């Protein structure tokens, strides 16, 4: 009976050692996973900052495009008005020469 108890005790000690080894492995995996999580979170923060900067630049570009479009429109209107004035002046000049 003592031999059987001793054998069971050895088996339980072996199981305990195996469980402790498995626990140590899980703890190591947990630390590695936590380190990866911290790294991923930092990368996420950096990407969010880059996205915010890109969105700001995009907004600035959109405003600049609108301003340039408005300026082109204004200049086109000025060119059109100048061409009309030129045509009128040309007619007046032609009429003056015909006199």
UniProtKB/TrEMBL annotation:
Superkingdom of source: Eukaryota
Keywords (alphabetical) are: Coiled coil
Can you tell me which residues the record assigns to a coiled coil? 16-85
Q: Write down the species.
A: Colocasia esculenta
The protein's name: Uncharacterized protein
């Amino acid at each position: 009976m003592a031999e059987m108890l001793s054998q069971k005790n050895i088996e339980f000690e072996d199981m305990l050692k195996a469980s402790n080894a498995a626990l140590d492995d899980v703890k190591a995996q947990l630390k590695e996973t936590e380190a990866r999580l911290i790294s991923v979170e930092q990368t996420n923060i950096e990407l969010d900052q880059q996205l915010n900067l890109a969105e700001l630049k995009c907004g600035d570009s959109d405003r600049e495009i609108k301003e340039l479009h408005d300026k082109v429109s204004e200049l086109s209107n000025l060119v059109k008005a100048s061409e009309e004035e030129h045509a009128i002046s040309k007619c007046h000049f032609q009429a003056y020469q015909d006199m």
